[in-house]
Design a protein that fits this description.
It is a single chain. The chain is of the alpha/beta class. The protein is built from 14 helices and 14 strands. It has a six-stranded parallel sheet with strand order 2-1-3-4-6-5, sandwiched between helices. A six-stranded parallel sheet has the order 8-7-9-10-14-13, sandwiched between helices.
């Protein structure tokens, strides 16, 4: 189904959400049509954030907003959906559009399997009527569903459209880019060169895939790395937990701007704890690149200044490899919490692979490594 056909039937004029690869056609259409005009389209930090933003839109206009997300974000939206939108509280109507990763019977990455199994169950448990859109769904079917949904929306209830892989299309391909020159894979290669045999926690998406391939290329063990394949936005908290309880080991967190934004409160906690053995590197390309390259709110954000405000004793920003190498070496030698923000171009190798070990194997090897006595 063409995405414009779907949106015409929905009939909304305000959209907010977190980009998703299953919803690439929707994200491209919204970017093409509205850009990031706040009157019509806002890319939020996390799914709870956009659900609350949608509630504000309804309070201000009386109209029905659309919130889009990957199903992995259902956990973030449950709190405002249950304690704010629900008809037993404020009865605020919202249309959710949810990309279905890990659909049973469809091969997907391990972090999506269980989430895919419970996607529809979660909606049912929360009393949110849902309809699955697939490649075979006709415009007439969707029109009939929306007719029923409007009755629920009129009662102050939320509804959900669950979108299968390839179910919606858009004829134009939108290109996302910025003005920075350093590539993320090469940035990670420079980090690995300096971190040597330190523990590394890498964020969700292409960064972890690139780290895995760099270790393969270097003939190095993967035991040093914890690849955070799911739970976007939590890699820095995982790294903090390790750093606090393994003070004899240096711990590096390779983070992304979209992930850091998603649960930015973690930086305040890290800054308050000040583990002397933690190095937090945020690679900032201002994009949700793993799911297509749609912009984040971090394009004009200065993470280094933010980290300083959160209590990080040392912060720096690098936009050249010379500056990056200088700051990496300083961080390695320093006894003190620090953050390095790295300005990065959008883009990755088309032939970028995926880890060949399972998530469980990664965890076991990493835990064994953490118990080793430092050399």
């Amino acid at each position: 189904m063409n995405v414009k056909t779907m949106l015409d039937m929905i009939g909304a004029d305000f959209y907010t959400g977190v980009p998703d690869s299953r919803l690439r056609a929707l994200c491209d259409y919204l970017t093409d049509t509205y850009g990031t005009d706040p009157g019509h389209h806002v890319i939020a930090a996390n799914e709870g954030n956009c659900t609350a933003l949608a509630a504000g839109y309804h309070l201000a206009t009386g109209k029905i907003p659309v919130v889009y997300m990957q199903n992995s974000g259902q956990g973030n939206m449950i709190n405002p959906a249950a304690s704010l939108l629900n008809e037993k509280v404020y009865a605020i109507p919202v249309i959710f559009i949810i990309g279905w990763r890990g659909e049973p019977g469809i091969k997907d990455e391990p972090q999506h399997i269980y989430q895919g199994e419970v996607t529809i169950k979660l909606m049912e448990t929360m009393g949110i009527p849902s309809f699955v859109i697939g490649k075979e769904t006709t415009a007439e079917e969707l029109q009939n569903v929306m007719r029923k949904f409007r009755l629920f929306l009129g009662q102050g209830k939320a509804v959900a459209l669950i979108v299968r892989k390839g179910a919606v299309s858009y004829e134009r391909k939108v290109e996302y880019k910025n003005n920075y020159t350093m590539g993320r894979e090469e940035i990670i290669r420079h980090i690995v060169k300096v971190s040597k045999e330190d523990a590394v926690v890498s964020t969700t998406g292409k960064a972890s895939r690139e780290l895995f391939e760099i270790r393969e290329e270097n003939g190095q063990s993967h035991k040093y790395d914890f690849l955070t394949v799911g739970s976007m936005g939590h890699s820095s908290s995982i790294a903090l937990g390790i750093a606090l309880h393994k003070p004899e080991k240096k711990v590096w967190c390779i983070d992304g701007d979209g992930a850091a934004l998603m649960h930015m409160g973690a930086m305040a906690v890290i800054g308050a704890e000040k583990p002397e053995n933690l190095i937090h590197v945020i690679i900032n390309n201002g994009a949700h690149e793993t799911v297509g390259g749609m912009p984040t709110a971090a394009g004009g954000l200065h993470f280094a200044a933010l980290a300083k405000t959160c209590g990080y004793p040392y912060t720096a920003c690098a936009d050249t490899f010379e500056k990056l190498d200088e700051e990496l070496v300083k961080a390695k030698e320093r006894n003190g919490l620090c953050l390095i923000e790295v300005k990065c171009a959008i883009g990755a190798r088309e032939n970028l692979g995926r880890p060949t070990t399972t998530a469980w194997e990664n965890k076991e090897k990493f835990m064994e490594f953490l118990q080793e006595t430092p050399s």
